[in-house]
User: Which sequence fits this backbone?
């Protein structure tokens, strides 16, 4: 599906735009829950493979709910916790980008960085 040049470019984009901005963990994955790239700041303490599978199911469920209320899709999901938050964003019809961040980073910054990242990812896909 991806060649080594694309995989290296994806890693570099995620590091440069998201991890270096203070986002704790990033997963770039397909809609089936298969992680293409997983990067973190060294503090991740969870099974990112299981997380990706659950995230795909979550996104699919919300997609079905969108159709029930007459929307073609909800391309962005956000879950806020006491200490951590999760931002899901559709990259294209086949790919999903998940960013996990702590309370020290604003949602606005995350949304801005994710939007720029998605634009760059779509240029290499």
Assistant:
């Amino acid at each position: 599906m991806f060649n080594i040049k694309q995989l290296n470019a994806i890693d570099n984009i995620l590091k440069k735009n998201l991890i270096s901005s203070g986002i704790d963990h990033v997963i770039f994955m397909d809609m089936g829950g298969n992680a293409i790239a997983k990067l973190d700041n060294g503090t991740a303490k969870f099974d990112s493979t299981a997380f990706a599978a659950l995230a795909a199911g979550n996104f699919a469920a919300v997609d079905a709910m969108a159709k029930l209320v007459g929307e073609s899709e909800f391309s962005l999901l956000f879950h806020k916790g006491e200490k951590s938050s999760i931002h899901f964003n559709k990259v294209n019809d086949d790919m999903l980008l998940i960013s996990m961040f702590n309370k020290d980073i604003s949602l606005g910054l995350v949304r801005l960085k994710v939007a720029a990242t998605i634009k760059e990812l779509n240029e290499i896909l």
Q: What stands out?
A: The helical segments are 4-17, 48-68, 107-124. The longest strand covers residues 95-102. The mean pLDDT is 95. The two ends are 10 Å apart (CA to CA).
